[in-house]
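Feature request, filed as a ticket because there's no other form

It would be nice if the structure record came with a short human-readable summary line next to the tokens. Right now we just get the raw output. Example of a typical job, pasted below so the devs can see what we mean:
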Amino acid sequence: MFIKLNSIINFPEKETPFSGLLKNRLIIASKWPECVGAEIAKKTSIKFFKDGILFIGTENSVWSSHLTSIKNQILDKLNEALAPFALKDIRFSAGSPLYKPKQAKRIPCVKHTLTEAEEQVVRGAAESVKNETLRKVTENIIRANILISKSG
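Raw output as currently delivered:
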């Protein structure tokens, strides 16, 4: 089952330059994967949209070059999907695409154990949590916090 974007996001009744750009970007972003395919969608992201030109970030220069070579086909598919809205051009640039999740920094594993007194603090702090799963998660978070503070 598909849900229309307009039913989730309440766009302002009165259009502002920002709301228009946001709406256009969201509409383009919703059509991008279906027009370029899953593989290309994974390697690209929409940087921004300005004056009818769509700026796309690519994973590297090879992807940028390849997509530039098939730009007219992509532009035709997008314009067909976005009708009556029409893009003038698409520009691809190599580099890290925007809006991709960054990898979390790894915290070195510390082989410390809590003292019995610290374990009692953990259990006492989490005892008011009724749901067993949530209580265990809470205990683990508190344990991790104590271990990080001990190793720091």
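Something like this underneath would help us a lot:
Helices lie at 5-8, 17-36, 38-43, 61-69, 71-82, 116-126, 132-151.
Residues 7-13, 15-19 have pLDDT under 50 and may be disordered.
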